[in-house]
What does this fold into?
Amino acid sequence: AVLNVRTRDGQIHQVEAEAGVSIMESIRASGIDELLALCGGCLSCATCHVFVDEEFAALLPGPGEEESDLLESADNRKANSRLACQVMFGDGMDGLTVTIAPDS
Ligand code: FES
It folds into this structure.
């Protein structure tokens, strides 16, 4: 399946995504290096911050409590902010589009 990733230069990259794998892992595996994901998905760094395009919001279960708390500490938090390591790709999410949050 395809995951669309908008990098900070505004370009959209098509990334191969697999059900059951976090979108952070798929983005990293594709070679995009703007998503630091420093903690490796341990829910402690918030450097995997992305914005989910509105039209796909309904496809995703909302953030859990811990994710929400950590997002509080992230700069540029928006209503559609997510931590990419907590977003599992699932069937029916083909074409999901996310934007990598600004650096600071
Ligand atoms: Fe650190 Fe997601 S990779 S919180």
Q: What stands out?
A: The helical segments are 23-29, 65-72. The first helix runs from residue 23 to 29. The first strand starts at residue 2 and ends at 6.
